[in-house]
Amino acid sequence: MGLPRAVQDCSQVLLVTSMSVLTVKIFFSPLGVWCFSELFFVKEPQDAIVSRKDPVVLDCQARGEAPITITWLKNGGKVSENERIYTLSNGSLYISEVEGKKGELSDEGFYQCLALNKHGAILSQKSHLTLATISAFEVQPLSVEVQEGGVARFVCKITANPPAVVTWEVNRTTLPVAMDRITALPTGVLQIYGVEQKDAGNYRCVATTIANRRKSTEATLSVIPASDLKPFHKPAIIAGPQNITASLHQTVILECVATGNPKPIISWSRLDHKSIDVFNTRVLGNGNLMISDVKVQHAGVYVCRATIPGTRNFTVAMATVTVLAPPSFVEWPESLTRPRAGTARFACQAEGIPAPKISWLKNGRRIHSNGRIKMYNSKLVINQIIPEDDAIYQCMAENSQGSVLSRARLTVVMSEDRPSAPYNVHAETMSSSAILLAWERPLYNSDKVIAYSVHYMKAEGLNNEEYQVVIGNDTTHYIIDDLDPASNYTFYIVAYMPLGASQMSDHVTQHTLEDVPLRAPEISLTSRSPTDILISWLPIPAKYRRGQVVLYRLSFRLSTESKIQVLELPGSTDEYLLEGLRPDSVYLVRITAATRIGWGEASLWTSHRTPKATSVKAPKSPELRVEPMNCTTITVQWQQDSEDTAAIQGYKLYYKEEGQQENGPILLDASDLQYTVSGLDPRRKYHVRLLAYNNMEEGYQADQTVSTPGCVSVRDRMVPPPPPPHHLYAKANTSSSIYLHWGKPAFTSAQVINYTIRCNPVGLQNASLVLYLQTSETHMLVQGLEPKTMYEFAVRLHVDQLSSPWSPVVYHTTLPEAPSGPPVGVKVTLIEDDTALVSWKPPDGPETVVTQYTILYASRKSWIAGEWQVLHREGAMTMALLENLVAGNVYLVKIAASNEVGEGPFSNVVELAVLPKETESNQRPKRLDSRDSTTYSDYYHLDQKSMTGIVVGVCIALTCILICVLILIYRSKARKTSAPKPVQQSTDQLSHTSISLASANEAEKSIEGIAENAESLLPMIVGNSFIDAKGGSDLIINSYGPVTKANCKKRWLFFQDTKKVKAEEPQRRFVQAVCLYQPSTTVLISEDDSPSSPGQQSNFQVPFSIAADTEHSANSEGSHETGDSGRFSHESNDEIHLSSVASATPPATNHFVSNDLGTNMMSPAISNCKESPLPFTTDQTATSPLQIHSAVQN
């Protein structure tokens, strides 16, 4: 199984570059597969400033499905290439010598590159190529006379591209500006504080650019000696800040130079009481404010205040900073796939200062509206799509600061078998905002219709926006309920099938009902005399009028009284004069509008003070007009009455948001007739107050209200969405929780922000299981997750009822769970005198992750004192050595598994007894498994089946014993009739005897009795050896290891002639085979040459136990694999089995045990064997016939 060939070919186009990612889009349909790679720019041309005759390269690199053709445009026309101007192989434009001649020969202008492939074309942003220029000095420094200790200031101004670097010279040498007294501003201003006699001289400025260097005329600084008497002087600002307009990221300098005695202190603030950005702002010299990397939020009115220390004497100066910003998108068009005859709708919104202009391009060419294609409110709508509409569309936003483009692809899906159009469309008005639309199903191919699309738009006006609603095919009526009241709308219906759409239905027009006004008019208040107020108002915008206004209601009262007077005026009036009022009194006025449906909401009270009765020569009220420029800026314009003869010194401007504190006054010159107030909040109502003043008194004031509009809308929202949180970081905290942290986006003011966290496992199919969490912090601990599972996280923020897009997704995996159980199968074995081997298996559970094991061991004395020794092993290890153990102690061992989350429980304690060396030849240390450690017992727990087996075995054993007793009685009678024969011993054998004999006769009798009993009771034993009968082996093992025997045949001693046995007895019993075994090898030794008395149970069990254990040894737990990655050799495995069997046998029971001892284990000992006399003892003490000896190298 695989993708279709066409898709496989498309998948090869994926390209990742350092700047962006080329995506491949694939569309499936019953008719085939379409795919294309998006065409995009890797590099676009940038603005460039060059000197004449210098070369320049304008970058342009595009990526997409090859071949790609690059074409260059200059001012909208194709660039004519020649030897001086041509396109490089990577698509960039190269100009070897830039010409600056006027007319067509000049290379200056706006350049764009056009990239074209088979899917369409895209146009780059504009690049402005200009020549470096510098003008003559517009302002030259002027000579000044300054009193010693005063302030000297020189100014020069010059226009240059790029901006010139201005430096200063005194007496034609470079002026050192490193002194605190001297400040040289980048704007071309030189300030010298605390002037001294040595500062006198000729000063000039030098302006330098990449193209030229100019020097100004010289100005002389004369220093006048200071008088001894220094009288008090109020502060005066001799050079205040000037209104300035700056582009984004430039540096702004606001100058403020003040004099006074004592020396005044200069401080800065904003008129709107917002804090000044301390990160991008600093003070130069003695009070100049520099804002570096200026941003939109830096726009506003800045106030310089000079204050005499310790007094209330101060003066202020203000300037407005306007920041221009290039366009930037807040909503981008998205690629669409539409059927033929369908409708495509592209949305695009941008912001910038000034507001950018939006235009649309199709394959790099500007689109013009026609019957099918419409552009309105930054949207592009294509109705009744045809195959030629398949193209790449671009939204271009541009203003004086630059341009920016965003692209989207429209793919048209073809289908020939389309349904006919719906018919009999009719509409019915339901309310002021709702109309019911109904229709009949298509007459042709109605069974193939999967949906209907309802289209509607306002009927009045041109280029109105068209809206679309898609509904299912199970209905033929729909209520549109988001319409404007008192408006005519046009409707039509389109039927859709999977790969096509019908023609448009017939258009119908219907009118909505009226409603009450949504907003009150904006009013303006002025006074023509001390006893009147002229109230004027603007018509309500149609969007908020919701019908025809038929009445206005004016309400007014004195601010000191509660009695309200009401007037009702016809809807055609726009002003009214209130007369007979009190002079110098504050009146409150509000207005309400009504349609035929009823009255709307009244405006808030607007205050106005009538002039004083004595104000005969006071300036009259100016004619005020306030309009919003954008969502945060309003423009205040006024015109003074030409018939007013009163002198005007200036104007005072006040403004405030409704319900807030008033800002001002803003002092304006008499020549000013306009002012811009910025830094306002969108969708707020502001009250503006303006009055003229002169030396005698303040004039009549004019009041007006204005509402700021909403900011750029984004998909029916009034303000753009906030940016998403950034730098989302995830870290696993436990097996069920992950810690998230993210950065808060920068906002212009402090706001309450809430966040939503989306969390779900990667690959989740059930959307209902997605987890959404809320918080107001920039971090959260997400809990209740599954262990060792990968999750994906995204965060969005909510502020002022707006939600940001989701942040980029972050993936992270929870930690595994801590081990829930202990290691299993813990075993401890002594492998040397002071060293033990501990082994185990990992804890149960397939999902358990172990990174480390902790082994605790201690002697009983240390355990009582709470002192454990600790060992750590990696998770891949399942064994460890316990070294430096002290003989004579019993050690306790337990093990726990752990990982990065935590440690699991410890296993049950396992005991290991390390016996003293002097008892080592008699018995081996006892070894316990963890399953036996709870009782520390050497006995097995017997169940009912085991007890039944034991009873049957005992019965059989008793029967055998009875038979043996009868045979012994019979044989003893036979021996009494025969004479005893002495046993001869060689000199070599007697030299190795460990016990002296009382007499030769007694020795002969003892040996003879032992031999006879051994021969009669042990048919499988040959002399001082026994046969390893497991698996039918013929191997003979004596007390020192395996021996090689001559041709030996099995004999049943019960039925053998007694004399013959006695004759052969010495040769068989004293076989000489001494083995010098290797260290750490295990051998079997029979230390007692004589079994117990005939009456003991063990003597009769030997022949049967050998045969029985032959199979049992292969299935016993001791012989099973340990699961320790095969690290136990056969040798150590056998040792463990023998130890466990020996420890499980009661001490009073003596019998032979045939174990799984192969030749591989014994071969090291055999390799160094030599002949040696065989020692034997007549000690009749009942000891275990077989013991395990570990030879330790000395």
From TrEMBL:
GO terms for biological process: cell-cell adhesion; negative regulation of neurogenesis. It is found in: Membrane. Residues 421-515, 517-613, 618-717, 724-817, 822-917 form the Fibronectin type-III domain. Its main location: membrane. The keyword Signal applies. The chain crosses the membrane at residues 947-970. CDD domains: FN3, Ig. Residues 1110-1133 are annotated as: Disordered. It holds the Pfam family fn3. May play a role in anteroposterior axis elongation. Belongs to the immunoglobulin superfamily. DCC family. PANTHER family: PROTEIN SIDEKICK (PTHR44170), PROTOGENIN (PTHR44170:SF47). This is Protogenin.
